[in-house]
Design goal:
The protein is an all-alpha fold and 78 residues long. Helix content is 77%, strand content 0%. The relative contact order is 0.05.
Amino acid sequence: MKKLEEQDLNRLVELNRRYRDLKFEVADIELTFERLKSQKLTVMTELEIAVQEFSSFQKDVQERYGASNINLLTGEYN
């Protein structure tokens, strides 16, 4: 049976390993990307809820105090 020269075989093995490693790296990136997309959707939903809660409570505070400008650090308003 014929054989490749050792240096050619080593190079072929090296290139194959590099190719395989890069494919795994791409797969890891894709998995991370999908997790991040899912996380982003969750956070966007929570953000929408937070905006609605803030807006609703802000209206309530404005009705109770007649406040138009509120300093969130001191609680002072005018």
